[in-house]
Amino acid sequence: MANRTATSVLFGFDFQANAAIVLMLENIKDMTSIRLEGAEDIEINLNDGSCVLAQAKAVVNSSTDFSNVLSNLKKSITSLSEAEYKSGLVKELIYITNTPNPLKEKQLNPIFYGVAQRDYCSLPEPLKDKINKIISKIEKPLDTSKFKIQILPFETDNDNERYKCVMDAIGDFIPKLGNISIAKDKLHGIWIKDIFRSGTKRTSDIKLTKKDIIWPLIVLVTQNENYDEDDFDDSEIYELSRSYEAIINTCSEKYEFVTKVLCAYNSFHKEAKQGERKQKFTETESCKFAYIFEGESVFLPSTLQEKLLQIIVRNILNKRIQIDNIKNAVNL
To answer: What is the dihedral of CA 22, 208, 142, 87, to 10 degrees?
Structure first.
């Protein structure tokens, strides 16, 4: 029994983090931050000062076990009611689960198929009545106009099947960022780790910002690559890139640094031709960013430092359009 209980708890945490990714992507343009175990299981804060609060409940054998679904719904509505009262401006109150029968109905035809969302107002009257019965026993019940039930299929020990709908959500999101190529499973792994970690912080004010969420995307498209320009011999570029890959990528991962490089480039000799402008900027301005190496424990001779800076800066400039597309797509 203990092992099954532990498995159920861990399965629930896994579902919660993956449900957070799905809700995050649905709100990505307006989102400012996200956190697990904040005001609710999932708390998403928005630009206008409002928030989306969600209760996430998972059933290990969701397609066959409906014994606790009504109890889960009651607990979630009670928790959301309390959270709405304490949180102030709330845009949506969501109960997200993996069961296709969250209200344990036997007489009605199923209304939830696969990935599904139903606002309270769109539910059949018998289901509304069941929810009304629950909220009638709560001193300060939630606002039903903000309440919805969301189904995220999530079952089995086969990762491809368990995470299929989450991967589909990520796969639908990536093309909106422009012409970039990112492995959705790699992005999924990064987001799961970061989102799960946010819930382990003891202070609920510590949240994962949109910049924290989107920056891995920018990192993935600005990491080390070779170039067509022949400022360096190709073999030299390859050897430097291979030998100092960790330093190059670490520098390229610094949000503020990349932003400063792009801002400097945007104001650099705008009258110059595009190809010449990039080359001249790399040759003449890269040295101004040498401070990026100050935290490196490895001693870098000045000549080597100069060449690495040019590689790093060119990395960023070659991907500047993609970086801008990503930032614009998510309103960052």
So the answer is: -170
* DSSP structure string for 44-60: EEETTS-EEEEEEE--T
Domains of the chain: which residue ranges?
2-168, 223-329
Cβ neighbours for 210, distance < 8 A, ≥ 6 positions apart: 28, 31, 32, 33, 330, 332
Distance CA(202)–CA(5), nearest Å, equals 24
Reply yes or no on whether the pLDDT at 109 is more than 80. Answer: no
What secondary structure letter does DSSP report for 233? Answer: -
Residues 6 or more apart whose CB falls under 8 angstroms from that of 132 comprise: none
> For 62-92, what is each residue's pLDDT tens digit?
999 999 999 999 999 999 999 999 988 999 9
CA-based R_g, the chain, Å: 24
Q: How many CB atoms lie within 10 A of CB 263?
A: 10
278 pLDDT tier (thresholds 50, 70, 90): confident
Give the pTM: 0.83
Mean pLDDT on 233-249? 58
Three-state DSSP class for 84? helix
